[in-house]
Every structure is written in structure tokens, then in C-alpha cells.
Amino acid sequence: MLNRVILIGRLTHDPELRYTPSGVAVASFSLAVNRPFTNQQGERETDFIDIVVWRQLAETCAQYLRKGRLVAVEGRLQIRTFENQEGRRVKVAEVVADNVRFLESSAAAQGSRTDDPLEAPERRPARFDDDPFAGDSQPIDISDDDLPF
Length: 149
Known about the structure:
CATH class: Mainly Beta
CATH superfamily: Nucleic acid-binding proteins
Keywords: DNA damage, DNA recombination, DNA repair, DNA replication, DNA-binding
Low-confidence stretches: 112-124
Protein name: Single-stranded DNA-binding protein
Number of strands: 6
Shape: elongated
Subunit structure: Homotetramer.
GO cellular component, one term: nucleoid
Mean pLDDT: 82
Distance between the termini: 55 Å
Number of domains: 1
Radius of gyration: 22 Å
Strand content: 35-45%
GO biological process, one term: DNA repair
CATH architecture: Beta Barrel
């Protein structure tokens, strides 16, 4: 049996960090994920999916993620049932995430912030528009002593 979910979307609100009575961190947020097709009016519909993150990952998400950030979430789908205040049974579907990847820097999402670990150049992911061959037509200044052959 397999229960695996992978989502890419934007946060609809800042993560809410709480702690259980035993001190375990838990954060929750909602992810807006576009559907891969358009409706009859030609508009793309969006699903809003609840995400739950535990322990150190919860604290990291609460510290660095903000509304509008693009993230990839990997985890499992969980359906839980409870009784609401009116005594009615309610089913809730949520993704319990075990991996959250920040897909853009906070500067790209909302201006400049310096406490984001992705801001450091050595940790920043390569962008698709970065061309490694941009200066390809320029001559290279290298001596014969630098060549290994």
C-alpha cells in the first residue's frame, strides 16, 4: 500500500505554530495549488489544501515561510474525523508533510529579507534563466602551464 502526496503551490497564509502539551511543535498552513486544466469559462481553478508539519520542520516553516511563498510539499494524505460544537461528525482531509522545500527566496516573494537561509549565494538554488554559457563567445585568458595535458 502507498499513501504519498507531492504538491507545489503557494501559501495562503503564514504558518500557525503551536506546541502540544508534551512540547512537540506542530505548524499548519494552507497551500493554493492550481489545477492542470481550465474550466468551461477558460479559467484555471485552484484547490486549497491544508498542510500539517511536525517537530523541527514545523519550527523551520514557521520561521521562514510567509503568505505567498512557493513551496513543494511531500507527505501523506490523512483523513480524520471529529465532532464539532454542534455534535455533528466532520471529516477533514489534510497532508501531513515530512518534507517541505522552499522553491524561491523570500526576497523574490515579498521584497528583501536577510534571515532566509536561501539568501546565501552558496545555498541559493540555480534559476532556470541563469545561463552557464552566457560568456561562451568571449576568449578565455589561460596559459599553457594551467592545462593538465
